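Researcher: Next sequence.
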Amino acid sequence: MVSPQENVQLRNFAIGIQSDLGAFSAVSLSHGIFTLLFAFSTAIFVRRGLKTRASWVMFSVTLITYTISTMYWAADLAVIAYLLKYALIDKSDLELSARIRGARLAAFTVENVSLCASVLPPFISDAVVIWRAWVLFTDQRWIMILPISMVLGTTATSLVYVSSAVSGSLSGQINSRLFGSSIILSTATNVVTTLMITYKLWCHRKCVVKNLGTSPRSPAQKVLDILVESGFVYCALQVITLTLDSLPKAPELGTPYAYAVQVFLCSYTVIAAMYPTIVIVLVNSQRSFVETYGFSDAGISAQPDSQYRPATAGHLSFAAGPQTEITSITGAESVKRHVTSTEF
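Model: Next structure:
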């Protein structure tokens, strides 16, 4: 006969498993989409060849982030398997409370793998965004001091958060604040860097208008549009994640609100890992987010222009029409430079 206390323990354990299964389903869906994107981006690199350092770097980034996402997915599955096996199948001679306690201890090591995997994709995405801005601001390296400082702060905060969560040296409240601080720094890094790329897009448009008298959508402008739009979408995702993490936790287990928060926070890791690959696929198709989701007919009505060559994920050209030199307005001074190719 099951006692009332054991009924409560079994109910809470079942609610936890149900919540984990819901989050795992969302992670599986996101990882399945990532698998398709990774296969598509790999085909792009294979077809075009890894001829430049930028191509090798971007292929390595997609491979590493996909591997981390796979580890995260596998660790989540292993946690659920450990909990069910230990609590309901093995150790049947022990009391229910002892079995549940043992199941959580058995799953603790695998949960640490999931925890470590969850902090890596946002850091890699931040590093990729900073690299893109670094390439664009070749003549103003000093402007990169702020975003680089913030990504270093994100790295330090994430390391402290992971080490304290694994060792249990700090309280859960402090760990939650460390997690929130890392997201704040990561969001600030992406906002600042995306605004910098937006400024470079504005300068490019101004140069084209000055030299051509019009502002056609060149491949370089399309790539910059994708970088800006994807950057702001990713920033919005981080703001939502930070908001959900900052809200008061649900007082009861198993509420729809608690399920929604856990599902979103678990999916955030895979989406952050997916972000560089999404940009590569969009750049390859030469379509921005606006065109991809049908808010613009530019992709349908636009005709190919012979004065531009296609831009790729590994190559971005700033063309200036028939002239061989353009005037680039950066800050308060104007500098003349030859049309060059900037690698991404």
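Model: The first strand starts at residue 316 and ends at 317. The first helix runs from residue 4 to 48.
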